[in-house]
Amino acid sequence: MQRFPVSSSDIRDIGYDVTTQTLEVGFIKGGVYQYSPVSESMYQVLMASASKGSFFHAHIKQHNPRRV
To answer: What is the pTM for the complete model shown?
Structure first.
């Protein structure tokens, strides 16, 4: 899955697969994790949010994380 760099003090890059509703997050401190199911609309709100780290921790972190 292709990830795109984001401006965040916690998150390095983010990718999304619409078919599997899987969000992939690379963290600045290391590690890449996948979260699912994450809706496409949730992904779009995350990418548009001013604080991606805060949004991620409040709304996505609990979505069945799996280390890649």
So the answer is: 0.93
